[in-house]
Write a structure and sequence with these properties.
With about 575 residues, the chain is α/β, with parallel strands linked by helices. It has helices at about 1-5, 15-45, 50-100, 100-105, 110-150, 155-200, 205-210, 210-240, 240-265, 275-320, 380-385, 410-415, 430-435, 445-450, 455-460, 480-490, 510-520, 560-565, 565-575, and strands spanning about 340-345, 355-365, 370-375, 395-400, 400-405, 415-420, 430, 470, 495-500, 525-530, 545-550, 550-555. It is about 65% helix and about 10% strand. Strand 11 (about 545-550) and strand 12 form a beta hairpin.
Length: about 575
């Protein structure tokens, strides 16, 4: 897991290496300062030697400035490395999401993906910066300060060695407890983000049903549970600070007591034992050693907090896309003929229910095919198999005489334009949205596609025409206008197969008829699959397929089905005036 995440450092590896090196320099200067101060007092002030006082004072200033310089450089390099790491990690994760199939996305909730790309990456960024800076500082400060203390007095240094195990044992007890709590906390954060996302997306429904108070209660419950969870973790971590202060005070008292006896016994003679200057430096080393242990405990806490985000980001990065282009993929689609040979489909390998069952269907290139069926009959599932949004579970599906699994995915989906049941427009101008279908489309091609989709008239009615800004999700246009813009966007791909998944449901019957008439006249060589609820939308199709419970219940022209299919007869009569007769 660490190896995979470390690959996100990439071009920032030099900054990641220079930061700890500069930190080593800063720590070395900080540890040197107490030794110089001891010499300043013992050999300068105590002996009234001004030459020593001046030289040691200059050396102290130099050490302080070097420490400051190394510290600033370490902070700059660490910041650059951490922000670069976070940028690369987000890019890798987002790129991975773009490669996901529908089944991959189904396994991660959208709120969870957003949380992983935002707060989880932010936590890892902070942890990474702390690791390459504070971890090195703590370890080097502990080692160098302890060595310096041992050089001054082995007897006094044993006091540190008695206190350190207490802190280490306490740390080992606290960290596992905190980890489990933070693990639950990040799952609750997913739940809270999902609540917010769901509420904002459905805000019109919330207000129309006057459910603001209920939604507020739901969010408050999740938020309170999250606060309670993190408060519990903070209470456990709060034990760390008083324990550390207790150890600092215990060491200070012990060193004062033992050190004073040693100074008195040596007569403050450097050659006979401990001096006053050396004792004062021992107090400084006490603070440095124990504070480095305290900082190390905080680093451990941050690393503990980051284990869950690390695992969650790793899960996203390592999730293998279910659908990929094969080796030596076919890069050209001959025509728009479609052949379903005994096709069955399950949404997951463990699912007992088959969404499609033994479908045999053969559609010639350029044909117009209507697909009817009740809710849950498998209409959308059937057409989603053609551009490999899902793969068939059994049987084979051929496009242009070649199994769709042998095509390059980009080539396949460029030749199959699909207007989904749920239409989606993106924030930007109408022109920008249309060019999703063809980035190089000219203005004439945009107008032609919009004319076929009966969208040109209402677009020119806007003050800014094709430069009219579309809000996120297309909230500033009607449902019918959104559907027609999505159809025009699909037509710009000039596909071999055009799939309309109930994409004219919000359009009036006159406009629906005009769109179908334009399709017959302008794109006769494109295979058109039209999923509809209205018989009028498909009655002039070359073939009408009736689906029931995932199976092809009937297939034929409008006249043939009126003669032979009870399901089609029932639907047709229920939609006609006077059908009760």
């Amino acid at each position: 897991m660490l190896k995979r995440l470390a690959r996100c450092i990439r071009e920032y590896k030099w900054a990641a290496l220079l930061s700890p090196l500069c930190m080593v320099g800063e720590v070395a200067m900080e540890v040197t300062i107490p030794l110089v101060m001891a010499q300043l007092y013992d050999y300068g002030i105590a002996m009234k030697n001004m030459d020593v006082v001046v030289s040691k004072s200059i050396l102290l200033v130099v050490c302080a400035l070097c420490s400051l310089g190394f510290g600033v450089l370490s902070a700059v390099f660490a910041s650059k490395a951490a922000t670069g790491f976070a940028k690369n990690l987000r890019q890798d994760m987002f790129y991975q999401v773009q490669r996901f199939s529908f089944s991959n996305i189904d396994s991660f909730s959208s709120a969870s993906i957003v949380t992983r790309l935002t707060s989880d990456v932010a936590n890892l960024q902070m942890t990474f910066q702390m690791m390459i800076r504070m971890t090195i500082r703590c370890v080097m400060m502990l080692v160098l300060a302890l060595i310096s203390a041992l050089r001054i007095s082995v007897k006094l240094s044993t006091i540190y060695l008695q206190v350190m195990p207490v802190l280490i044992v306490a740390l080992c007890c606290l960290v596992p407890l905190v980890f489990r709590i933070f693990d639950r906390g990040f799952k609750l954060m997913d739940k809270m983000n999902n609540t917010v996302q769901e509420n904002i997306r459905g805000i019109r429904v919330v207000k129309s049903f006057v459910r603001e108070e209920k939604e507020t209660e739901k969010f408050t419950g999740v938020s309170a549970e999250l606060a309670k969870n993190f408060s519990k973790a903070e209470k456990i971590l709060a034990l760390n600070s008083p324990l550390m202060l207790m150890c600092v005070y215990a060491c200070t008292l012990s060193i004062s007591w033992v050190g004073a006896h040693l100074v008195v016994a040596s007569g403050n003679d450097p050659l006979r034992g401990l001096t006053t200057g050396e004792l004062s430096s021992m107090f400084t080393y006490t603070t440095q050693i124990l504070s480095s242990l305290m900082q190390m405990s905080m680093v451990f806490v941050m690393m503990t907090m980051s284990r869950s985000p690390m695992r969650r980001c790793y899960e996203l990065l390592q999730a293998k896309p279910d659908l990929v282009s094969p080796e030596n993929a076919v890069t050209e689609v001959a025509d728009g003929s479609i052949d379903f040979d005994n096709v069955s489909f399950r949404y997951s390998a463990t699912a007992k229910h088959r969404a499609l069952k033994e479908v045999d269907l053969h559609i010639p290139s350029g044909a117009t095919v209507g697909i009817l069926g009740g809710t849950g009959s498998g209409k959308s599932t059937l057409v989603q198999l053609i551009p490999r949004l899902y793969d068939v579970s059994e049987g084979s599906l051929r496009l242009g005489g070649v199994d769709v699994r042998k095509y390059d995915l980009e080539v396949l989906r460029d030749n199959v334009a699909m207007v989904l049941q749920k239409n989606e427009l993106f924030s930007g101008t109408i022109r920008e949205n249309l060019r999703w279908g063809n980035p190089d489309a000219t203005d004439e091609e945009l107008i032609h596609a919009c004319t076929l989709a009966c969208a040109h008239e209402f677009i020119t009615g806007f003050p800014d025409g094709y430069d009219t800004y579309i809000e996120q999700g297309g909230t500033n246009v009607s449902g019918g206008q959104k559907q027609r813009l999505c159809i025009a966007r699909a037509l710009l791909k000039k596909p071999k197969v055009l799939i309309l998944d109930d994409s004219t449901s919000a359009v009036d019957t006159k406009t629906d008829a005009m769109i179908r008439q334009a399709f017959r006249e302008e794109i006769p060589n494109t295979t058109k699959l039209i999923i509809a609820q209205r018989v009028a939308s498909v009655e002039d199709a070359d073939m009408i397929v009736i689906l029931e419970d995932g199976m092809v219940a009937a297939c034929g022209t409008h006249a043939e089905l009126l003669e032979s299919s009870p399901i089609y007869q029932e639907v047709y009569r229920s939609q006609q005036k006077g059908g009760e007769q």
